[in-house]
Write a structure and sequence with these properties.
CATH class of the largest domain: Alpha Beta
Oligomer: single chain
Shape: elongated
CATH architecture of the largest domain: 3-Layer(aba) Sandwich
Number of strands: 21
Number of domains: 2
Length: 494
C-alpha cells in the first residue's frame, strides 16, 4: 500500500471531505476548541447513545447537502488513551472510509494527540497480500492520502517528526509483511538475498550486504545451515548486513540481529501433517523482521552499528536430507544430535549466532518462529523472551519498547536445570527436549552458541502470523518485530 500523509495545521476542516473527529467515552468528540458546524449533530448522536466513544467505535454524519462525510471515531476511556488506542483509531478510520470508497481523509486532532501512532494505524491497517489477484474488486481498498491537523497550540514540528518516524517504521513493517505472505515458490532463499541486496543498494552507503552461498558456507564450516538445507534444490545462504550511520558512532554500541529464514518448512524427514502446511511459508518471520529493520535503518542516521544475519534455507525431504539420528558439527565446533528434523530453526541459528560473535556485539538478539510450545504458553498476544545473564541488562528496555510499539514480549525463565532438556548421550546437545518446556529447551540450545555475549532470544511463533485481522494486525504474516526493534534501536544508540 502506498499512502501519502502530511501534517497541516492550517487546513480548514469545514472545507474538507471525509473529516475524521475523535472522542472519548466520557467527553464525546474533542475538537480542541474549534467551531465546527457538525459538533451539535455529534453531541445529539452521543445523547442518543449512537456514538459511545468506545475504542474503535465509529459513526458517520453528513452535512446539510449530504455530500460531505464526517466520521466520528472512539478512543475509549480517557485514562486509557495510549498509543494502542491511537493506532486502533487510525485503523478504524482507514477501514471505514476506504470501505466506503473514499480516497482521502482529514483527521482533526485533539490536543496532545499521538500523531505517530495515529499515522501507524492509518498506514498499517487494512493490509492484504493481493499481488496475485487479478480482480480489482478483490484487492484491498485503502485511502490514498490523509491530512493530519494538529490542535491549536500543539507542536507542529514534533508532529511532523513523529509522522516521519511512523512512515519509516511502517515501510520496514510493510516489506516484512510482503516477504512473509509471498508464496514459498517465490520467496526462496535467493529471493531473500536479492531483497537484502536491494536494501543495501538503496541505502545511500549506510548499509553493506554480503551473501554467503553454499561454497562460502562450506569454507566457514557452517555445517548446520548446510545440513538443514541439503534436501532442497534451493541453495542455502547466510545473508550478512552491516549498518553504520554517516556520522560518528559512540564506542560500545554494536547490535547484532539474527533472524531465522526457513522460507518453507515441510519438517523434512520428520514431515509435518498436510493440514495447514501451507502456513509454513511464514517460517521466515524472523528473517523478514531483520530485513524490515534494515529497510527502515536505510533512511536514518542513528548512532549505533547494527549487524543483521539471516540464515536461510528450505527444509525439504529428499535422499540428501539430514536424518533423525544424525550428528551435526556446527561452526563453533559444538555438536548437535538431530532427534527431529522439524526442529530445524535452532539448528541453522546455531551457525548464525556463532558467526555474529565475530562482530563482537554489545548485544545479540535473535528472532525466530521457533516453537509451538511458545504459542501454547502465550497464545498470539506476546512473543516469548529468554535471555542469558549478560542479556538481562537489556530486557527491561526491550519490554518497554514492546509496550510502546504494541509488539509485546514476555519473559520465560532460563534456569540451569533446563539444560537437562537438551542433554544427549552422543553429542554436546540434542535438538529437541521432549514434551515439556519446548520453548525454553530451544532457547537453551541457542544459549550455548551465544556463549558469553549478551543475548536475548525472541520466540515469535505466536505473534508473527495470525488467523484474523485486528486493528493494525492483518490476517497472515504481519511483520512482527520491526517496530519493536526500531523503537529499541533508537534507545540503544542514545
Amino acid at each position: 500500500m502506498t499512502m501519502t500523509l502530511r501534517v497541516d495545521a492550517a487546513a480548514d476542516p469545514a472545507r474538507q471531505d471525509n473529516v475524521v473527529l475523535f472522542g472519548s467515552v466520557e467527553d464525546g468528540i474533542d475538537a480542541a476548541g474549534r467551531d465546527l458546524p457538525i459538533l451539535a449533530r455529534a453531541a445529539a448522536l452521543r445523547a442518543l447513545g449512537d456514538f459511545t466513544g468506545k475504542l474503535g467505535a465509529t459513526s458517520l454524519l453528513y452535512d446539510d447537502s449530504g455530500s460531505r462525510r464526517w466520521l466520528l471515531v472512539g478512543l475509549g476511556e480517557k485514562a486509557k488513551v495510549n498509543g494502542r488506542a491511537w493506532r486502533a483509531a487510525g485503523a478504524a478510520a482507514q477501514v471505514t472510509l476506504a470501505g466506503l470508497g473514499a480516497e482521502s481523509a482529514t483527521c482533526v486532532l485533539p490536543a496532545g494527540a499521538r500523531v505517530g501512532e495515529l499515522a501507524t494505524g492509518l498506514l498499517l491497517s487494512g493490509y492484504r497480500y493481493d499481488r496475485y489477484l487479478q480482480s480489482e474488486d478483490a484487492k484491498a481498498k485503502h485511502l490514498a492520502s490523509a491530512t493530519l491537523v494538529p490542535a491549536p497550540g500543539d507542536d507542529v514540528a514534533a508532529a511532523i517528526a513523529a509522522l516521519s518516524r511512523a512512515e519509516c517504521h511502517a515501510r520496514g513493517a510493510s516489506l516484512a509483511r510482503d516477504l512473509m505472505n509471498g508464496p514459498g515458490n517465490a520467496v526462496t532463499p535467493s529471493h531473500l538475498a536479492a531483497a537484502a541486496t536491494a536494501i543495501a543498494a538503496e541505502s545511500g552507503g549506510r548499509i553493506r550486504c554480503r551473501v554467503l552461498g553454499e561454497p562460502e558456507l562450506e569454507a566457514e564450516n557452517c555445517r548446520a545451515i548446510l545440513a538443514v538445507g541439503a534436501g532442497s534444490a534451493e541453495e542455502s545462504k547466510l545473508i550478512v548486513l552491516e549498518y553504520a550511520p554517516t556520522g560518528k558512532v559512540p564506542a560500545g554500541r554494536t547490535l547484532a540481529l539474527v533472524g531465522k529464514g526457513v522460507t518453507f518448512d515441510t519438517g523434512g524427514i520428520s514431515i509435518k501433517p498436510a493440514a495447514l502446511m501451507e502456513e509454513m511459508k511464514y517460517d521466515m518471520g524472523g528473517a523478514a523482521a531483520v530485513l524490515g529493520v534494515f529497510r527502515a535503518l536505510a533512511e536514518l542516521d542513528l548512532p549505533v552499528k547494527v549487524v543483521g544475519l539471516v540464515p536461510t534455507v528450505e527444509n525439504m525431504p529428499d535422499g540428501r536430507s539430514y536424518r533423525p539420528g544424525d550428528i551435526v558439527v556446527t561452526r563453533s565446533g559444538l555438536s548437535i544430535e538431530i532427534k527431529n528434523t522439524d526442529a530445524e530453526g535452532r539448528v541453522i541459528l546455531s551457525d548464525a549466532l556463532d558467526y555474529a560473535k565475530d562482530f563482537a556485539p554489545d548485544l545479540l538478539i535473535d528472532l525466530a518462529t521457533l516453537t509451538g510450545a511458545c504459542v501454547v504458553a502465550l497464545a498470539h498476544e506476546a512473543a516469548g523472551l529468554m535471555a542469558n545473564d549478560a542479556g538481562e541488562a537489556f530486557v527491561a528496555d526491550l519490554r518497554e519498547s514492546g509496550d510502546r510499539s504494541g509488539e509485546r514480549v514476555w519473559p520465560l525463565p532460563m534456569y540451569a536445570e533446563y539444560e537437562e532438556l537438551i542433554k544427549s548421550d552422543v553429542a554436546d546437545m540434542c535438538n529437541t527436549g521432549g514434551r515439556y518446556g519446548g520453548a525454553i529447551a530451544a532457547a537453551k540450545l541457542l544459549q550455548r552458541f551465544a556463549d558469553h555475549s549478551p543475548w536475548i532470544h525472541l520466540d515469535i511463533a505466536g505473534t508473527a502470523w495470525t488467523g484474523k485481522e485486528r486493528d493494525i494486525t492483518p490476517k497472515g504474516g504481519n511483520g512482527f518485530g520491526v517496530r519493536l526493534l526500531m523503537d529499541f534501536i533508537e534507545g540503544f544508540g542514545s
